[in-house]
Write a structure and sequence with these properties.
The protein is mainly alpha-helical and about 180 residues long. The protein has a domain at about 1-115. Helix content is about 85%, strand content about 0%. The longest helix has about 35 residues, at about 100-135. It is globular, with a radius of gyration of 18 Å. The chain starts with a helix and ends with a helix. The relative contact order is 0.11. The model has no long low-confidence stretch (mean pLDDT about 90).
Length: about 180
């Protein structure tokens, strides 16, 4: 039963997560928290691992959830569930999208979908930031340091074009040394 639940849940997420992995994070978060598959703290740790390992964040997240619940077979089922809708859609639409009518349709679709995708990504960022900043409902000294680090990381990437991979590796090393 858990295998069907994993597959169907991640199939639906895969079918509706236009905009890539970051847009899927709020959907995955709601699913894993609502089903009691993990706590918010576990989810945040999972996102950190999924983000810092190679591959798309949504696929890494689905794999992690499946593995946590039932091991390697669960990881495979959740990952296949997430990826199957995209495969079906690409195969089904590939011939149509080669036509001018198909290209026009995709451009119109993207005009409508882009703002929602940005909203979903912002929602995921806000959800994770809230959890980091407001530990147990209050702001701690560690939370303030986290905010400073978030702002520095944002500025480093946005203003100074620092490679995000470098920041992730640096943060991991500092975490190991300082904690």
């Amino acid at each position: 039963m858990i295998y069907w639940k994993l597959f169907s849940t991640f199939f639906l997420i895969g079918a509706f997560c236009f905009g890539g992995g970051y847009a899927a994070i709020p959907l995955i978060q709601d699913t894993v928290i609502t089903n009691g598959w993990m706590s918010m703290n576990e989810f945040m740790n999972m996102i950190a691992v999924a983000e810092s390992t190679p591959g798309p964040v949504a696929v890494n997240t689905a794999t992690y959830v499946g593995f946590k619940l039932v091991g390697y077979s669960g990881a495979a089922v959740a990952t296949i569930g997430l990826c199957t809708p995209a495969f079906i859609i690409v195969v089904a639409l590939s011939a149509f999208l080669k036509t001018q009518r198909g290209k026009d349709l995709i451009q119109k679709l993207m005009v409508g979908v882009k703002p929602v995708v940005v909203g979903l990504i912002f929602c995921a960022a806000w959800s994770v930031a809230k959890e980091v900043i407001f530990t147990d409902g209050s702001v701690s000294a560690g939370s303030l340091l986290d905010v400073v680090i978030m702002v520095i990381a944002f500025l480093a990437i946005h203003k100074f074009k620092v490679n995000p991979i470098l920041l992730i590796v640096l943060a991991a090393v500092l975490g190991i040394i300082l904690v």
